[in-house]
Amino acid sequence: MNSVLEGLSYNVQTFGCQMNKHDSERISGLLRSKGAVEVDSIEDADVVVFMTCCVRESAETRLLGHVNSIKNMPPKGSSRVGRRIVAIGGCMGQNYGEGLLERAPGIDVVFGTHNISELPKLVEASIASEGFEHHTLLQADDFPTDLPTKRESPWSAWLPITIGCDNYCTYCIVPYVRGREKSRPMDDIVSEAASYVADGVKEITLLGQNVNSYGRDLYGSPAFAKVLEGVCGTGIERVRFATSHPKDLSDEVISLFGSLPALMPALHLPVQSGSNRVLERMNRRYTREHYLELVAKMREACPDVALSTDVIVGFPGETDADFEDTLALVDEVGYNQVFTFIYSPRTGTPAASYPDAVPRPVAQRRFDALFGVVEKRAFEANQDDLGKVVPVLVEGASKGDGSRLSGRSPRNQNVHAPIPEGVAASDLAGRIVEVKVNEAKTWYLAGEVV
Length: 450
Ligand code: SAH
Ligand code: SF4
Ligand code: F3S
Fold this sequence. Notes:
Layout lengths: L8 E6 L3 H16 L3 E2 L8 E6 L4 H15 L13 E5 H7 L3 H4 L5 E3 L7 H11 L3 E3 L20 E5 L1 E2 L10 H5 L3 E2 L2 H13 L4 E5 L8 H4 L4 H9 L5 E5 L8 H9 L6 E3 L7 H6 L6 H14 L4 E8 L6 H14 L3 E6 L17 H24 L5 E9 L6 E5 L5 E5 L6 H4 L3 E9 L4 E5 L1
Parallel strand pairs: 1-2, 1-3, 3-4, 4-5, 5-6, 7-10, 10-11, 12-13, 13-14, 17-19
Antiparallel strand pairs: 8-9, 15-16, 15-18, 16-17, 18-19
The protein binds S-adenosyl-L-homocysteine, iron/sulfur cluster and FE3-S4 cluster.
The site of iron/sulfur cluster has 10 residues, from helix 6.
């Protein structure tokens, strides 16, 4: 029997991390397999799916505003369903379940992170009953690998190697909404990577909340280095990964940065704080000294590595002196990019009940001070590339200026250049072109195709 989804239009809106982006590709693949057709805008969609993030309160508030505003939009005129179906999935779906109805009245479906494959069924049931459908599993049994996927980009692919997280940093909701850490068998990973290469994919990003502990559950000890070797061995041109927990970053993995040419010289290594006292209260299980040692080893193995990090300011009990330690660390490392966050209490996490909250204006002041150092050091770090010729994986025409191309350098910098005459941006997309850098700004490089 045909699905009622046959011929309906859908649009997926994605928030949060790459895990959600990858899950959205699977949602899209599933809906297509039922005959639904993807459209670019919410206005044109019969079915709108929100893949949500609950890591910080600000992300939730924005999302709910968005959902409520589309519920007020008239449904698509031509629809045979007569209403626009709105489904909420991802981490807020998992965390709040049916409770989301109170905050976003009128939504039709809520589903969780462990039951993506049920979305078509839930939407079908909602259409049939004209009512609300909801299902969130507490924990998935297996690593979900066999769902159809519609990749966002033909030349780059996300490849999850672990799901879930066992680290329980005291501020973080992720272990509660993504479940226990589970690794995917090595052979599956390598054969998926090989199939991407055969498809013309140029870049693979390996995904996990802590890729460094890959394999502990399956093989008894971490085996991330083996995954990197296996994936690079498929002949793929570029390999990246996210995210890497400093407590588990091994010397073996560090040394691969010097020996596997496909492994791109960019490492995201979230530090969260430069104060040992705060790190301990965050349950991060490394010290500032250990972290700086990792940075030194990385730079020895791969001198041009671009480092990026995440920092939380205003964690409960953070003093001015703790914050100064963070500032000094960020200044010392000289990151290419730092993602800075003001601490946001998440119900159910240990830190949410710590009594010594930092007043918002103090946290904001620290955030602003940190940002000043981040910008200065990012600008300096990009100057290394001035005058160099860098291979750029082209993403397409630049969003702001159609006459320029935009893409990524090996160090994961954004690079712009005028599109050479007689060439269409669409022909360059997915290709690697050489760009001579003649301008190095804080957040991008610019140059000429050579
Ligand atoms: N697994 C990754 C991070 C996932 S969450 C890792 O361990 O690095 C992404 C980032 O959000 C975190 O690195 C942290 O900096 C930030 N974050 C997580 N929980 C937060 C909270 N409660 N308040 C503010 N920032 C938070
Ligand atoms: Fe959250 Fe920590 Fe796990 Fe990262 S490692 S997802 S910050 S609990
Ligand atoms: Fe957010 Fe869920 Fe990722 S909470 S950061 S979308 S795992």
